[in-house]
Amino acid sequence: MCRNCTTKTVNRRALMAGGLALSLTAPFVSRALAEDIGAAAPVSPQEALQRLMDGNARYVANAAIDTDHSAARASRAQGQQPFAAVVSCSDSRVAPELIFDQGPGALFVVRVAGNFINEEGLASLEYGVAVLGIKTIVVLGHTACGAIGATISSIADNTLPPGHLPSLVNAIRPAVYDVMASKPTDLLAAATAQNARLNAERAQSEGPILSEAHAAGKLSSVAGIYEIATGKVVLL
Ligand SMILES: [Zn+2]
């Protein structure tokens, strides 16, 4: 077995034996370290979401403050304590740390074209909650999403794209079907919003880790749309 493979196996075993056994509130790093990394971690889901939206307001105003990426490098080498997770599209115009004006170590990001939560994404979010202690999950759709548009075209033309692309279409299709019946004037926008809503709902309901954290008031999951033209995030 290769050196890297061995390392990965050990890490996975360590995670299963210790990491996931931690309580949902167990800090991954000490409070002192967290404060050294940057601002003190938000204590509530509401505070975490407000911190994100405050950052987006700075981004919209082109007044970003979290741009010193070399600060606290030594502290980050010791651990991480992100306060929020963002499920975003792979679209090159949708960069969560920039959009929310957050530096390294602040956001736990799950990205896939079409910003849906698959099994691996769900497991990643569970790790973020159970081990890293994130307080809020934002499922972030965006305007002019090519993955949503391709899914709409696939349904309209009754065809599937080549290669592995059907896996994206199949994951996004439920949101498109949901809104097609009401014949919205802007099907792309309606399907994009519904896709974000469905996946935020999945983050709320999937058990046991995420659903229990929500029930305990320690986690929130919300859907939002990033407007490429303005830079603004609108919560749904
Ligand atoms: Zn997209």
Mean pLDDT figure: 87
Shape assignment:
globular
**Secondary-structure element order, N to C:** HHHHEHEHEHHHHEE
Under CATH at level 1, the class stands as Alpha Beta
How many discrete structural domains? 1
CATH architecture: 3-Layer(aba) Sandwich
The total of beta strands comes to: 5
Describe this structure in words.
This protein is α/β, with parallel strands linked by helices and 236 residues long. The protein has a single domain (12-235), classed as 3-Layer(aba) Sandwich (Beta-carbonic Anhydrase, Chain A). 47% of the residues lie in helices and 11% in strands. A five-stranded mixed β-sheet has the order 2-1-3-4-5, with helices on both faces. A hairpin with a 6-residue loop joins strand 4 (220-226) and strand 5. Helix 7 (146-157) packs across helix 8 (166-180) and helix 8 (166-180) packs across helix 9 (187-205). The longest helix has 19 residues, at 187-205. The chain is globular and about 55 Å long. Mean pLDDT is 87; it is low at 1-38. The chain binds zinc ion. Zinc ion binds next to helix 7.
